[in-house]
Amino acid sequence: IPYAVSFTERDSGVMMYKWGEDCVEEFLNELADNSVVYFHNLAYDGRFLAKYGITTAVEKGTKIFSMKLNYNNKTIKLKDSLALVQAPLCRFPSMFNLDAGKKEIYPYKYYTPENVRTNVGNIRDAVEVEGWTTSVPGSKNHNLEYDEFVSNIDSIPNCRIDDDHFDMSLYCQFYCNQDVNLLAKGFDMFRNGTLNDFGIDVDECLTAPSLANKFFTDCVYK
Fold first, then answer.
1. Where do the H-state alpha helices sit in the chain?
2. How far apart are the C-alpha atoms of 152 and 163, rounded to whole Å?
3. pLDDT of 73-114, one tens digit each?
4. How far apart, in whole angstroms, are the C-alpha atoms of residue 199 and residue 47?
């Protein structure tokens, strides 16, 4: 069940965020006709969007390379950036020399539909659900996830509500925005590199093999 969407437009520098039960519809309503949207692992995100009018899809096994969506008289194309840059987002900072930002610690299991509706999270409950038990700093069994989770809460403006509670939407926004920021900056560097070096726009390719084939066709086997 989707409860949040972060996204940005190429070269805009503006991060958008939708929260709540209507987040997907609000996201799709923001998109212009003929938009192309990249997801890093479309096989995951595409399953949230399939019910909104998927007309065609390019698939192989469990992978989905692209999907076309007809929504409110708009055509929206979804593409998988993971098929072109075959590495997890956590590797983007080292691959593209990006600032990784703060450590991504997220209590996935705690974000249940019931908790999301209240938007007020209990820090202790979230920690216990994830198994991030507290411990003495410097000890052999010191739990770094707990420290990083609490540190993230305190670094996000207005995220800590009081000693025991945090704003679930603000924490989710922080986490998702970091992923989108890494994807946008890393993929733009990858695209600009192929444009500058080979005159090839990766937006015209679906996968790394198809990019390699286009390189050999355009630049080698003339």
1. 23-30, 42-49, 92-96, 113-118, 123-130, 144-155, 168-198, 208-215
2. 14
3. 999 999 999 999 999 998 999 999 988 776 678 999 999 999
4. 34
